[in-house]
Write a structure and sequence with these properties.
The complex is a heterodimer of chains A (about 300) and B (about 280).
Chain A: E1 3-14, E2 20-30, E3 34-39, H1 45-53, E4 60-69, E5 72-73, H2 79-89, E6 90-93, H3 107-118, H4 123-136, H5 142-145, H6 155-168, E7 173-177, H7 185-202, E8 205-209, H8 213-219, E9 222-227, E10 230-236, H9 237-242, H10 247-254, H11 271-286
Parallel strand pairs in A: 3-8, 3-9, 6-7, 7-8
Antiparallel strand pairs in A: 1-2, 1-4, 4-5, 9-10
Helix pairs in contact in A: 3-4, 3-6, 4-6, 6-7
Chain B: H1 2-31, H2 33-36, H3 74-110, H4 112-126, H5 130-141, H6 145-172, H7 175-183, H8 187-223, H9 235-244, H10 251-278
Helix pairs in contact in B: 1-3, 1-10, 3-4, 3-6, 3-8, 4-6, 5-6, 6-8, 7-8, 8-9, 8-10, 9-10
Classes of the chains: A alpha/beta (about 300), B mainly alpha (about 280).
Chain lengths: ~300, ~280
């Protein structure tokens, strides 16, 4: 299987304090595979997705590394070409369905605009494509929904619209940034199934950012565990759940609530494990010399 | 949810209709002043001085709102005064809106040095006392309608700039902006196509408010005789003249004051009504 997205030695830091948010991260997403990024909040998992899609917050910058999308180094391109390359090959399923749709525009144009304006589809083609993806995410009466404003839909419906929108242009890679976190549990399960179903049908590579190991177990092929912007473990899902390599990963797994063993789950990460992984981060930082020539994110 | 929406809509009804009705009447007077004014607003007739309005004993038919101390028809002067008020409201309001909103959008979306520059400029600007600043500007520019408009624009653009910048900052942080960027829209395209439609309700509300403020500022400048040529009828000028004879002829002061009050109130209510009507979240 060829690698579609390859992140190499990527370091991102804050512009003002120069603190590193990502510490020489390596991640590979093979074409058509689902890779999970897990970690506590603030571990930098969303930051990787944002760096890949070129939407890092203003306060952060890439200091070194490469991001290869379909074999092309995004960070070596001009901003204009990078934007086009990302727009043509990748898409985002954002976290919060309440703010991810433009409140003052109707659903239909929000899906078709990108197809028409950026990718040059004919209007009629974009319209029928939007209808098609909306029915694929099981939205009843897609034609009617396309004439509605986002506030007329429930959270779950909006997330379906966002998924449809992400798949509309047949991207080869989708970054899903905690797509189920803002939803309630019953809707979460449906949305997750939907993403898995569409991913399998379209053969899209998926970079799935989440803090929920249960979600990872359901949907991912591989996963990377992050702590403080450092990838502490990168393994297949089977190996991870059978026997995690890193003590921190094991602690994270033990911290996951399990309904079949309520007494032995939900354990906090032990202090010695945190100290050990912090020591590892400090050691990585001590040995780090930024490469010559700054790269832009 | 449905019920509260319906309630808001009912509320927006009379507010929107009454304010636009009054403003339409003012606009009609302004446009067709020569046709509907019963008298020449400048014609003096000392024999007909200080005639009271029609319901007071001693009034003259043909002078429904009475005359001032020089015998000029109050109603006709008010009708002509609407012209100045409306021209100032439209010209100053729109120019202020365009300049302030453009700078606010750019500062709020592009951040960085553009934001720094605009924000510092606003800080410095707001340290000037506005009325003194206006009088100073008129002193430099000379009196006249265009000077009044320029003075209002120079003073008030910060009002738009600050609010629009804050709202743009807010909207820029939303996920839909990131989605548009990922999809490949340019910065300018995202600003115009995604952010602007969401800042527009705020801009419209500010614009109507600013039109009301422009009417007041023009009246203040007329009151201190720094607006248009002193012969030309303006509401502020009439109030200034009426003040001198308030005990003998209260109507010279009261009627233009009512017109001024209703116009400013209507602009504010129009803005609020439009926002309620067109804000996508309230709609």
């Amino acid at each position: 299987m060829s690698v579609f997205l390859s992140v190499r030695n990527l370091s991102v830091r804050l512009r003002n304090t120069r603190e590193r948010l990502l510490r020489s991260v390596d991640i590979d997403v093979p074409a058509g595979a689902v890779c999970g990024l897990v970690g506590e909040s603030g571990a930098g998992k969303s930051m990787i997705g944002k760096a890949v899609l070129g939407v890092l917050p203003r306060a952060a910058e890439v200091v070194e590394g490469e991001i290869f999308l379909d074999g092309e180094d995004l960070l070596a391109m001009s901003p204009d070409r990078r934007r086009k390359a990302i727009g043509a090959k990748a898409a985002l399923i954002p976290q919060d369905p309440m703010t991810a749709l433009n409140p003052s525009r109707k659903i239909g144009p929000q899906i078709t605009d990108r197809l028409v304006d950026i990718l040059g589809w004919p209007k009629a083609g974009a319209f029928s494509r939007a209808q098609e993806v909306l029915s694929e995410v099981r939205i009843p009466e897609p034609e009617r929904v396309m004439r509605l404003y986002p506030h007329e839909l429930s959270g779950g419906m909006r997330q379906r619209v966002l998924i449809a929108s992400a798949f509309a242009a047949e991207p080869k890679l989708i970054v899903a940034d905690e797509p189920t976190t803002a939803l309630d549990v019953t809707v979460q399960k449906q949305i997750l199934q939907l993403i898995a179903e569409l991913q399998a049908r379209h053969g899209t590579a998926l970079l799935f950012v989440t803090h929920d190991l249960g979600v990872v177990a359901k949907i991912c092929d591989r996963l990377s565990v992050l702590y403080a912007g450092l990838v502490v473990e990168d393994t297949s899902v089977e190996d991870f759940f059978a026997a995690p390599d890193h003590a921190y990963s094991a602690a994270l797994l033990a911290a996951t609530p399990r309904h079949d063993a309520p007494e032995s789950s939900l354990l906090p990460v032990p202090q010695d494990v945190i100290d050990a992984v912090r020591g590892q981060v400090a050691a990585v930082d001590a040995g780090w010399v930024p490469a010559q020539g700054r790269r832009h994110g | 949810m449905l019920d509260s929406r319906a309630a808001i809509r009912r509320q927006a009804g009379p507010r929107l209709w009454l304010s636009s009705l009054w403003l339409a009447a003012v606009a009609f007077c302004a446009v067709f002043a020569p046709l509907i004014a019963p008298h020449d607003p400048l014609m003096q007739d000392l024999l007909l001085g200080r005639l009271p309005p029609f319901w007071v004993a001693g009034s003259e038919p043909g002078y429904p709102l009475g005359t001032d101390s020089l015998g000029r028809d109050v109603l006709s002067r008010m009708i002509y005064g609407a012209r100045v008020a409306l021209v100032v409201a439209l010209a100053a309001g729109l120019a202020t809106c365009l300049i302030g909103s453009a700078l606010g959008l750019l500062a709020g979306y592009y951040r960085g040095w553009a934001d720094w520059l605009v924000s510092r400029l606003v800080d410095i600007w707001m340290a000037f006392p506005p009325v003194l600043f206006a009088i100073l500007l008129i002193a430099v520019l000379g009196t006249g309608l265009s000077s009044v408009i320029i003075a209002i624009v120079i003073i008030d653009w910060t009002r738009f700039c600050r609010v629009v910048r804050a709202e743009t900052l807010n909207q820029s942080a939303m996920d839909y902006v990131a989605s548009a960027r990922v999809a490949g829209f340019s910065r300018l395209g995202t600003l115009a196509g995604e952010i602007l439609p969401n800042v527009l309700p705020t801009i419209v509300a500010l614009l109507t408010l600013e039109m009301g403020i422009a009417v007041i500022v023009e009246a203040i400048l007329s009151f201190v005789n720094l607006s248009v040529a002193s012969d030309d009828p303006t509401w502020g000028g009439m109030i200034a003249e009426g003040r001198l004879s308030i005990h003998q002829a209260w109507w010279v002061l009261v009627f233009p004051l009512i017109a001024l009050f209703l116009t400013v109130l209507s602009f504010a209510q129009l803005g609020e009504g439009l926002r309620e009507r067109f804000d996508p979240v309230l709609r």
